[in-house]
Structures are given as structure tokens and as C-alpha cells.
From TrEMBL:
This is histidine kinase. Residues 369-585 form the Histidine kinase domain. Pfam families: HATPase_c (PF02518), PAS_3 (PF08447). It catalyses: ATP + protein L-histidine = ADP + protein N-phospho-L-histidine. Keywords: Kinase, Phosphoprotein, Transferase. Residues 228-270 form the PAS domain. It comes from the Bacteria. Residues 175-227 form the PAC domain. It comes from Hymenobacter ginsengisoli. CDD domains: PAS. Its EC number is 2.7.13.3. The lineage of its organism: Bacteria, Pseudomonadati, Bacteroidota, Cytophagia, Cytophagales. Coiled coil: none annotated.
């Protein structure tokens, strides 16, 4: 007490010398003295004496004491130092505030997260469930969670879940399992349940805190992926081809069943470089070198090699592999296709093609030589006939008609031989290299060469190449096509009107070049507008000299270079030929 009120306080009024006692206590002294009722104050902060170390907390008790006549004679002040208890109480209060704040924060987090949180005790009774539970199940907040929860579990999962939860509580451990829980709309959705015990050693756990997370979509996706993978593997095992996959480093990690059946080796024997080891010894180094280069660069792999079958026979295969980048994972997918029969067939076809090419060349040479050699006897016959007609006379009323028929036959014979030679020459000219041609210049050259026929028939020619002035084509081929079409337009002109020929070069809607040759001549009778009569020696206007070779040559040249010819014609009005230099898509 001296340390509280001071060493010199004895004999003085407390009101005059309160020392470290609180001022509020001075007002209470008079009341206690007057009423005689005791007063107790808990944890009062008392200012220490000047020589004291710090402030202290005291429990203060004021008790009146009485004389012989039971009158209040004075007051007894009792002070108990409770500083440590008060510090502990304040610390506990602060911890309680922190705990309440953390609890509020935890509730906000758990009740806003997209999962259901819950608390169970050791007997399996549900002590808490977050609002997500009621929204998911559609149950009212007043429902008994302990009773209703097992009824919402799918019947096929109920016993397993209850058993695993009870076993975990008995052993004091957590759990992690999946089961189907009925949603508010009656659908069962897969849920992942996880919980951990609240441990306070050495006592056994009393509460388990956990969360329910909906994993229905993920589980269905995983099931679909598993089914898809199983189906793909089944498909790969059913295909009669060698199918394999490899890692990003090029090491093979999967073979289908056909690979093992074909090679006669199991997957362990094939190893990470299986198909390379099956190649013909003379091709293994080159095949492995290309494979390593493709793995390093990521470029697709393709090659044709011989592979050993289980009976030791090497058969030709086309080996293909491509890299699939699925996010950060790189994998190779490859196939080995048996093309041995096709390879042998290709060799046979190539041999036959070479023989046919030689026969075709020999035939062209023979036709050219025959037409060339026969022209001289024809010219001799022409000379002999002219001399005979000049010197000899016949007493025959049909003399003139017979001489005209013989003259026509000789002319037809000579023209046919000439056209056959031109046909062979045109075929050989088709091999000329393509170049960029000025279409207008080529057309003018052709028209200039036909100038005598143009003047003789008083023909008018219009040339329009502004829309497509250039063409990549063989010069001789283009000249031959235009020459035949223009000469035919002049030859088969209508007798009642002068020829009018239009040559127009333009681009189709697809941007491809085309050439149109239109006349106002005799026209033709067509049965198929896209496939007119282009056969060799076939003619429609037999009263006009000709051999039926010109249109055949046009179609042959255009088709051999990937184009096609279309014709539209009206008998007695004219004909339009349209040449598309490239084949439409």
C-alpha cells in the first residue's frame, strides 16, 4: 500500500494525499462511509508512486468498520494486484476480436466459393453446412442435415460413402472420394468430397471440416476421353497398317497389333526404334538419318522403303509421320503402308508406257514418212493426169464428168496426205516449252498469213485482247489453234453475206484466260454443246473441200495442255468456239 499511496501518507487524509488511487474512488469513499455499504471495484488502473516502475491494475474493496455502538467509525481499503490477470484478459479479448474477424472472413470465403463446405462431429452429425448446400439440393434451412444427407446420395453409392466416412472418423483421418448427389432438379451429379480432422493433441479429433466440389463435367469429359482413346486404339488395331506413335524425341512408345503381327516381334523386341530396324539393311542408315532430321526440325516425314515381314521377305512400304503439338506436349503419329503390289504394278505400267511411247513415236514417224513418201507419187499422178487430159481425147459423153471426178479424187488424196503430215508435226510441236506470249501479236500474224483468203472473201476481222493481252503457252500450239479456227471460219462462210470474224481474249470469273472465235458462217448441227464432233476426218459440210482434220487438231492441242473447248452454233447463222486454256476446278 505504501508503494501505491506513498511512504509519507500515514496520518494524512486520503482525500488530500490519494497517491496512485484513481480519482473516481475518492467520490465513492464518502458514499461508503455514509451508507455503510461495502464497495468493490475490479481491475482499476492505479497510477503508481513516483518510485514505482509502471501502472498496475488492482481489485479495490472498501469495507466500513464499526465501533461498539455499530456506528461507522472508518473504512478499510483492501487492494489486490491483478495486473497479470488483467493483461491476460485483455490479450484474450484481443484474440477473441481477431478470432471473430477471421471467422467472419472465413465465412465470407467459404460461402462465396463455388463449393459446399461442411463440418461433421465424431458421431457423424452435421454441425454446419454452407448456403451452397441449400442452393444445390433445394432443401430448406430447417431440414435435419444429418438425416437428409444420406437420402440424397445415389443408391449405388450410399453404402460405400457411409462406410468410408465412418471408417475415417474411427481412425481419426480424413477422406477423399467421389459420389453422386441429387440436385434440386432431381439429377444426380458427381461430387468430390474431401475432409480433414481438426486435431488438438493428445485428444482425439472431434470435428471434421470438408468441402464438396462438383466434378460432373470433368468426370464426363474424362470418361469421354477414355472412351475416345479406347476407340482410337481399337480402330488402330483393326486397320491392316503399321501404326505407331513416338515421343517428341522420336522414340516410339506405341505399336498397334498389326505391327507385331506383321513383323513377328513383340513390342519389347521392336523397342523405341522399331520400324527403322525393320528396314532393308541398305536403307536403314538413310531412313534413320531422315527421321532424325525431321524430329529435329518438326517437318513431316515421308519415304518409300523396303520393310521385313515376319517370313523374312522385304516388301515396299510408304512410311509417313507427322508431329502433333497439343500445348506443351509434342508427339509423332506415323504409319507404314504396304505398297509392294502397287510398286510392282507401277513398274509394269511404266514398262508398258515406255513401250507404248516408243510404238506411238514409231507410228507417228511411219505416218509422217508414209504421207511424205506418198505425196511424190500423188504429184506424179497429178502430172500424168494433166498430160493425159491435154493430149488425149475420149469419145464418151461422160468425159467431162469422169475427168472432174478423177481430178477431185487426186486433190482429196493430196490434201489428206498433207493434213496427216501436219497432224504429226503438230503433235511433235506440243512438246515446245511454254512462254509468255502477246496474244494480239500472235493473232495478227495468223491473220496476215491468211490475207489472200480474207481478201478473196471480203472478210472483216475484229481483234479484242484488251481484257487478257498475255498468255503462257507454246507459240507453235497457239498459232496452230488460231490458224485452224480462222481458216475454217473463212472456208465455211455463208454465201449470202461476207464473213465477219471476231477474235476476243478475256478472263473468266475465276480469273482464268479464254479465247473466243465467233463467225457468221454456215453453222453446225450439234448434239452436245460441250462435246461437238471433233473426230478425225468427220465433216458436216461435205460440199466444201476439206478433210476433217482441223478441229481434231484444235481439240487435241488444247486438251493435251490441260484445257478444253466449248462450241455454240446455230445452223445458217454462225458458230462460236470458246477455248479455255486451263481445266476448270
Amino acid at each position: 500500500m505504501y508503494s501505491l499511496v506513498g511512504a509519507d501518507a500515514a496520518g494524512q487524509r486520503i482525500a488530500d494525499h490519494p497517491g496512485g488511487l484513481p480519482q473516481a474512488l475518492l467520490g465513492v469513499l464518502a458514499q461508503v462511509y455514509a451508507t455503510g455499504q461495502p464497495y468493490v471495484a475490479k481491475a482499476c488502473l492505479c497510477t503508481p508512486a513516483p518510485d514505482a516502475a509502471d501502472c498496475r491494475y488492482y481489485d479495490l474493496a472498501l469495507e466500513p468498520y464499526r465501533d461498539e455502538q455499530e456506528r461507522v467509525a472508518g473504512l478499510l481499503l483492501l487492494a489486490i494486484d491483478v495486473s497479470e490477470q488483467e493483461a491476460t484478459r485483455q490479450q484474450a479479448h484481443e484474440l477473441s476480436l481477431v478470432t471473430r474477424r477471421l471467422d467472419a472472413r472465413l465465412r465470407v470465403l467459404t460461402e462465396t466459393a463455388p463449393l459446399i463446405t461442411y463440418t461433421l462431429d465424431a458421431q457423424g452429425r452435421c454441425r454446419y453446412a454452407s448456403p451452397q448446400w441449400y442452393r444445390f439440393t433445394g432443401q430448406p434451412p430447417a431440414a435435419d442435415l444429418t438425416a437428409i444427407w444420406p437420402l440424397l446420395i445415389h443408391p449405388d453409392d450410399r453404402l460405400r460413402v457411409l462406410y468410408e466416412a465412418a471408417a475415417a472418423r474411427r481412425s481419426g483421418t480424413g477422406w477423399n472420394y467421389e459420389y453422386r448427389l441429387r440436385r434440386y432438379d432431381g439429377q444426380y451429379r458427381w461430387m468430390l468430397s474431401r475432409a480433414l480432422p481438426e486435431v488438438h493433441l493428445p485428444d482425439p479429433p472431434v470435428y471434421w471440416h470438408g468441402a464438396l466440389t462438383e466434378v460432373h463435367d470433368q468426370r464426363e469429359l474424362a470418361d469421354a476421353l477414355r472412351r475416345g482413346e479406347a476407340e482410337v486404339r481399337f480402330l488402330a488395331d483393326s486397320i491392316p497398317e503399321l501404326i505407331w506413335t513416338a515421343s517428341a524425341e522420336g522414340f516410339i512408345d506405341y505399336y498397334n497389333h498389326y505391327t507385331t503381327d506383321y513383323s513377328g516381334l513383340n513390342k519389347e523386341d521392336l523397342g523405341p526404334t522399331g520400324w527403322v530396324g525393320l528396314l532393308h539393311p541398305s536403307e536403314q542408315a538413310e531412313g534413320a538419318r531422315r527421321w532424325i532430321a525431321c524430329v529435329a526440325s518438326g517437318e513431316p516425314y515421308e519415304g518409300e522403303y523396303r520393310m521385313r515381314r515376319h517370313d523374312g521377305i522385304y516388301r515396299w512400304h510408304i512410311i509417313r509421320a507427322r508431329q502433333l503439338a497439343d500445348g506443351p506436349v509434342l508427339r509423332w503419329f506415323g504409319t507404314c503402308s504396304d505398297v509392294h503390289d502397287q510398286y510392282l504394278l507401277r513398274q509394269v505400267l511404266q514398262t508398258q508406257y515406255d513401250e507404248l511411247a516408243r510404238a506411238h513415236h514409231d507410228l507417228d514417224t511411219f505416218v509422217y514418212a508414209a504421207s511424205h513418201d506418198l505425196r511424190q507419187p500423188a504429184l506424179n499422178l497429178r502430172g500424168l493426169f494433166d498430160e493425159l487430159r491435154r493430149t488425149a481425147t475420149f469419145a464418151d459423153p461422160d468425159q467431162a464428168q469422169l475427168l472432174a471426178m478423177v481430178d477431185g479424187a487426186l486433190t482429196q488424196f493430196d490434201t489428206t496426205l498433207h493434213d496427216l503430215a501436219v497432224t504429226v508435226q503438230t503433235q511433235r510441236a506440243q512438246q515446245d516449252p511454254a512462254e509468255v506470249l502477246d496474244v494480239g501479236l500472235i493473232l495478227e500474224e495468223v491473220v496476215l498469213g491468211l490475207q489472200p483468203q480474207v481478201l478473196a472473201r471480203q472478210a472483216r476481222l475484229d481483234i479484242d485482247v484488251a481484257a487478257a493481252p498475255g498468255l503462257v503457252y507454246g507459240r507453235a500450239n497457239l498459232r496452230s489453234v488460231v490458224h485452224n479456227l480462222v481458216s475454217n471460219a473463212l472456208k465455211f462462210s455463208h454465201p449470202d453475206r461476207p464473213p465477219h470474224i471476231v477474235l476476243r481474249s478475256y478472263l473468266t470469273p475465276d480469273g482464268e484466260p479464254a479465247l473466243e472465235v465467233r463467225d457468221n458462217g454456215l453453222g453446225m448441227t450439234l448434239t452436245d454443246a460441250r462435246n461437238p464432233v471433233f473426230q478425225l476426218f468427220v465433216r458436216q459440210h461435205t460440199h466444201i473441200e476439206g478433210t476433217g482434220v482441223g478441229l481434231y487438231l484444235v481439240q487435241r492441242i488444247v486438251r493435251s495442255h490441260g484445257g478444253h473447248v466449248e462450241v455454240a452454233s446455230t445452223l445458217g447463222e454462225g458458230t462460236t468456239f470458246t477455248i479455255f486454256w486451263t481445266r476448270p476446278a
